[in-house]
Amino acid sequence: MMILIILLTTSFTVDYVNPAYCPLGKEHRHVKDNKVKYIISNQDESESIPQLPMYAALTSHGSTQDSYRGTSGMNLCPVQCECHQLNQPKYQVICEGSFNGHFPIDQVPLTTTSLRIIPKNGNNTLTLGPSFRILEDLEELRISSSMIPNIGQRTLWGLAGLKVLDLSQNNISHIVDYNFDGLYSLRHLDLSHNVIRSIPSAAFHHVKQLEYLSLAHNQISDLATRDINFIQFKFKNIFLKINIFLTRSPDLTFSLIFLKLNSLKFLDLSGNRVLMIDQQIFRDIRNIQEFVCSDCGLRSLLLDLSLRKLRKINLANNQISSFQQLEPHLLRNLVELNLSGNTIQLLPMLEMPHLEVLDLSSNKITDSHSSPFSVAEHLTSLDLADNMIKNITKMFSNTNNKLQYLRLSGTPGSPEYLGDLIGQLTNLQNLQCDRMGLMSIGEIPLSLSLLTLNLSGNYLSSLDPATSLQNLPNLQLLDLSANSFITLGTDMFKAISVNGLKMVYLQGNPWICDQCHISSLHQWMQQSLMYWGSCFDSETTVGETPPCVKCSGPAYLSGQPIQSLKLEQLDDCLAVESAVHLQDNNSYQAVITTWSQYMLSAVIITMFIILVVLMVTKYRQYGVYLTGEKDTDLNCQDTLNDPIHILDRSPESYVNLKYPSPL
User: Fold this and answer.
1) In angstroms, what is the C-alpha Rg of the chain?
2) Number of C-beta neighbours around residue 177 at 10 A
3) Mind listing the pLDDT tens digit for each residue in 172-214?
4) What does the alpha-carbon distance between residue 101 and residue 298 come to, in Å, rounded to a whole number?
5) By the 8 A CB rule, do 355 and 382 touch?
6) Contact 433, 456 (CB under 8 A)
7) 35-41 and 9-15 as β-strands: parallel, antiparallel, unpaired?
8) For residue 410, which of 47, 278, 435, 620 is within the disulfide window of CB 3.0 to 4.6 Å?
């Protein structure tokens, strides 16, 4: 009897969206918390429960069951999306398909906490509307490459739990404070790669908990201070406290762009041509820990105020020419500093005792202090690539031994540099010496710490394992690619096997594929699994295996993978002896040929300039005066006989021989 009563009268509570979704002939009524009570009465045992309203999460007598969007009541997911259950009842929805004009938000599970709309191919065409408010549990919203033109007024109001908002790579042109009204839990905001031109005052004062803000790669050029007299009337309630100071200093100015962002830890302005950063913009973000402004056109960063928590600065690809253009007290507490791609010429002593990571690559450094890093006791990573430093080894004469990563790529060096550096830096783990013009590396001292050695892009043609690999027992990666090796002996591959190297890069060398030059290499490649599958023509091997090692000569084997060759079918040394000598000097001849072309071009240009100068000097007193007369219209003899009539025939003639008519 009890079971029969339960079947006859059943009530459900569902999330309310629109009463029109209630099935025909059924009854619903509002209850608290924006719910609708859906009443089914006098129901036959065989009658199934009618379809519930869309957007509904069904609960029956206090028990909850997830309901996906759709008309069938089955678990659904938007087309071109993937729905992953994180933990009951939370879901992550990832949409990598194409959506133009409309996104089916009504098909996204109500309990979704993470929604990502990031097309794999091309761009979407979407607008950001209030429909996202139905996802009340949303904590992460990422919509990229969707041509969103603007955020809208209080569009995301009600998403009080939203912590991450990523609208990068869209078409947003401006932002205002009410764009973020109601997002009280927002911690991460990414507006990079849009077309924002300026930032109004107090644009982010609604998101006081914001910790990460990226405005990189927009079109922002104005970060100047704003006159407090101009804007106080607009935000009267905000500036009540400031008015006290205003009466004392009527000319006082403030930058209110980042007003109320006391919790901000990360700020990225990269790619905006701000040219100059006024210290006033940091007054409201004094707790900032990392500041990035690469490719901003900056010439200096001088701030009087104290930013005690600032630990990382990235000012790469600007126009900073010396360390004097950087505030000393800011540098003193830094842990990471990136000044790559600037125009620094002299490296002074760096009074940065907490510094751990320093990037000075692609500058114009030619000289330095005798011990520029002696105070940087915690320095572990240093990048000096693509500079013109005359004496690298002297820079580390009194340096601590904590340095683990050193990159000298593209910096001119000599054979003894390698041994001296490894001998001085006893804790060095990764040494990048590619593109240094090395023809030999000399003797390497014993190093138990070195794990990675990059010697690619040099002019090495031989390598003695007795003076190199044997003193590097823990070496795991050796890069010898793009050098001048035509052969490697058996002792080299024995040393590789004994040392237990995990990877040796050998591609890009002018290997001569005959029996006496590649027999050791061929045998090693057949036995080692290091290059297995490297020459397969398959997308699955890209990025997983080293590049294919191929023959450079003789001509009929050029470009052939060495692994696929059969030694018994190759020529012996005598048959290709001339080709061997040709290949042995291949890289040097290429260099000489390149320089010859440059020199020939320079000589031709110089001779042309000299010829032009001589011509101008010789004929500078001559000139041509155009009278406008047509040579074809005049006959010399006729002109002499009747000059008045002949010359007057051409209306363009500058001479008029008629007598003036009387007035």
Assistant:
1) 38
2) 17
3) 999 998 999 999 999 999 999 999 998 888 999 999 999 999 9
4) 40
5) no
6) no
7) antiparallel
8) 435
Q: Please, is 423 exposed, middle or buried when counting C-beta atoms within 10 Å of its C-beta (0-12, 13-18, 19+)?
A: middle
Q: Which helix (H) or strand (E) holds 112?
A: strand 112-117
Backbone angles phi, psi at 525, to 5 degrees: -70, -30
Encoded tokens for 554: 């003789």
- Tens digit of each residue's pLDDT (9 = 90 or more) over 137-172: 999 999 999 999 999 889 999 999 999 999 999 999
DSSP codes joined into one string, 304-371: -S--TT--EEE--SS----GGGB-HHHHHT-SEEE-TTS---EE-----TT--EEE-TTS---EE-SS
Tokens of 521: 């290499």
- Three-state secondary-structure class, residue 249: coil
3-state secondary structure 164-218: EEECCCCCCCCCCHHHHCCCCCCCEEECCCCCCCECCCCCCCCCCCCCEEECCCC
| Extended strands (E) in 489-619 | 503-505, 511-512, 551-553
Which of 19-23, 266-270, 417-421 is the least confident region? Answer: 19-23
Residue 291 CA to residue 310 CA, distance in Å, equals: 8
In angstroms, rounded to a whole number, what is the distance separating the alpha carbons of residues 25 and 51? 12
Question: What span, in angstroms and rounded, lies between the C-alpha atoms of 95 and 92?
Answer: 10
Whole-angstrom Cα distance, residue 130 to residue 153? 10
277, 293, 294, 313 from 270: Cα distances, Å: 12, 4, 5, 12
Work out the burial of residue 537: count CB atoms within 10 Å of its CB; fewer than 13 is exposed, 13-18 middle, 19 or more buried. exposed
**What pLDDT digit, counting tens, does each position of 572-599 carry?**
884 444 444 444 444 444 444 455 666 7
Residue pair 532/545 in contact (Cβ under 8 Å)? The answer is yes
SS3 395: helix
Residues 359 and 382: their CA atoms lie apart, in Å, by: 6
- Cross-strand partners of 367: 346
In a 3-state reduction of DSSP, which class is residue 565?
Answer: coil
Q: Tokens representing 368?
A: 């330095």
Contact between residue 196 and residue 150 where contact means Cβ atoms under 8 Å apart: no
In angstroms, rounded to a whole number, what is the distance separating the alpha carbons of residues 211 and 630? 80
Residue 546: cis peptide before it, omega within 30 degrees of 0: no
Helix (H, G, I), strand (E, B) or coil at 572: coil
Q: Are 307 and 329 in contact (CB under 8 A)?
A: no
Backbone angles phi, psi at 587, to 5 degrees: -70, -35
CA dihedral 653, 658, 662, 663 (to 10 degrees): 0
Q: In the structure, what pLDDT confidence band is assigned to residue 545 with cuts at 50, 70 and 90?
A: low
